[in-house]
Amino acid sequence: MEAVATNFGINDALKQLGVKAINEGTSTGSNNFSNGPLIESYSPVDGALIASVKSTTKEDYEKAMTSATKAFKSWRLMPAPQRGEIVRQFGEKLREKKEALGKLVSYEMGKSYQEGLGEVQEMIDICDFAVGLSRQLHGLTMHSERPGHRMYEQYHPLGIVGIISAFNFPVAVWSWNTALAWICGDVCIWKPSEKTPICGIACQNIIAEVLKDNDLPEGISCLINGDYKVGEMMTKDTRVPLVSATGSTRMGKIVAKKVAGRLGKSLLELGGNNAIIVTPDADIKMTVIGAVFGAVGTCGQRCTSTRRLIIHESIYEQVKNAVADAYKQLRIGNPLDENNHVGPLIDTDAVEMYKHALEKVIDEGGKVVVEGGVLSGEGYESGCYVKPAIAEAQNDFEIVQHETFAPVLYLLKYTGDVENAIDIQNGVAQGLSSAIMTNNLREAERFLSHAGSDCGIANVNIGTSGAEIGGAFGGEKETGGGRESGSDAWKIYMRRQTNTINYTTELPLAQGIKFDL
Ligand code: NAD
């Protein structure tokens, strides 16, 4: 391999994952090809070139689609528990490669090694979940109004599921979709973020090995690579009944329109603007840990990152000082070095957005609590390392209303009852994750009630970030309304059919309609 950084065993990890210096970016199982221009992936950790990936052309895409279409014909006929067995083997392979893949996630995306391992663990968890689910894809039975009739519903595979994913969860989001879609009998075609294409290659290599070991058709898992234009090949394509897209609200609005225009289904997992409400009854120590991890974890680049802290006026100064003190202890640097808490932003464009947010909040009348800034010098050569910042602000500031994908935390003060805090929390366009820190049962229940948080995720005495795979994951409003992962999220990957069977010799019509011949 050429020009690959040598720190923290990255070369070994890449070797274990079968990543080459130049990789074919289109893959249909074991068959790899591509004819488009190279995408070079540079690490935000040290600025080194990790490897390159050839992007997918229209012709390459057609080959992948042909392969997926063919694979679906046989895959859907395999009993679901047997498909579950393939997902079980995939989970086992992920266990074997956990350290290597976790390291690559950290190096290509910039999150801490621990968070990289956590992301692979989520992949393993969803595989385990899907294996059990493969025996539980059940519908309901109903009583027919007609004598001698039986009525029930069943779920059938959809076909080809298109997956578009964001850079910040470069491997887990794919598996949340694929593990479920596969046991449901669908085949998948994935376009990872153009900012993290090497993670995509590594994942595809892992599943390709499992498919090959089981002599299964190519095309159950296809990979395509490139920017939004490659994504659009899927959103426009009537052969793709479901497009699951994770990324910004801006992207989601375009994808939703394209897919709806052909009456396809979309599952949208978009931006958040998540808040923690801190009431006078909050445990301040827990609040500080939850808020700091939520705001600076993954360098503020989680869809569930804490962006707003809504604090009651009676404890405002105390919480502000405690959080600001905790920020002094943060070590910023190479995320593969486990002594560091905060790694880099994904690229220098993200650094510009971070700088813009800090300027804008002051322009709008905010006040700095913890100063930000871009780090330079030894260890920070990539130009992507920034200081997590805190500013006092108002909820109606334009910048506060927007998701800035960086470690910028806004402090907002509320007075009076918890209802006022809930109004502030709900007073944004996004609706992903929310939390309340309180030991007061009434406040907690109000927050969780139908008049409480309007988000897809609402936590009590836990921060906004870090979800488990067992629950359905997703958010409301501009977050897109999709649900992935646990609970009954599997239903989106299937089509529902209602069946009525008449086991008599008569043909009575529903609603008692008479039609005598
Ligand atoms: P992005 O919107 O820039 O890109 C996401 C993906 O969409 C990429 O693969 C990109 O190539 C593709 N894309 C962009 N425009 C497209 C188009 N017109 N047609 C088809 N595909 C298109 O997002 P990003 O910067 O990679 O990720 C950060 C964003 O993702 C944040 O807003 C974050 O909140 C969000 N996110 C949401 C969730 C969630 O579950 N709600 C999870 C992770 C990230």
Structure at a glance:
With about 525 residues, the protein is of the alpha/beta class. It has helices at about 10-15, 60-75, 80-95, 100-110, 115-135, 170-185, 195-215, 230-235, 250-260, 285-295, 315-330, 350-365, 400, 420-425, 440-450; strands spanning about 20-25, 25-30, 30-35, 40, 50-55, 140-145, 150-155, 160-165, 185-190, 220-225, 240-245, 265-270, 275-280, 305-310, 365-370, 390, 410-415, 430, 435, 455-460, 470-475, 475, 485, 495-500. The longest helix has 21 residues, at about 115-135.
The secondary structure category is alpha/beta
Task: Output the number of helix runs.
Answer: 15
Backbone CA Rg: 24 Å
- Mean pLDDT comes to 96
CATH class of the largest domain: Alpha Beta
> What small molecules are bound in this structure?
nicotinamide-adenine-dinucleotide
Report on the structure:
Homotetramer. Residues 39-498 form the Aldehyde dehydrogenase domain. The active site is at residue 269. The chain has helices spanning 10-16, 58-75, 80-96, 98-109, 113-133, 172-183, 197-213, 228-235, 249-261, 284-296, 316-328, 348-363, 398-401, 418-426, 441-448, and strands at 22-23, 26-28, 31-33, 38-42, 49-54, 141-143, 149-157, 160-164, 187-191, 221-223, 242-246, 265-269, 274-278, 306-312, 367-370, 389-392, 408-414, 430-431, 433-437, 457-460, 472-473, 476-477, 484-485, 494-502. With 517 residues, it is of the alpha/beta class. The protein has two domains: 7-270 and 489-496, Aldehyde Dehydrogenase, Chain A, domain 1 (3-Layer(aba) Sandwich); 274-477, Aldehyde Dehydrogenase, Chain A, domain 2 (3-Layer(aba) Sandwich), CATH 3.40.309. A seven-stranded mixed beta sheet has the order 3-2-10-9-8-11-12, with helices on both faces. Strands 15-16-17-14-13-19-20 form a seven-stranded mixed beta sheet, sandwiched between helices. A hairpin with a 5-residue loop joins strand 6 and strand 7 (149-157). Helix 4 (98-109) crosses helix 5 (113-133), helix 5 (113-133) runs parallel beside helix 6 and helix 10 packs across helix 11. The N and C termini lie far apart (80 Å). Nicotinamide-adenine-dinucleotide binds at residues 164-169, 191, 193-194, 227-228, 231-232, 235, 246-248, 251, 254-255, 269-272, 303, 403, 405, 432, 475, 479.
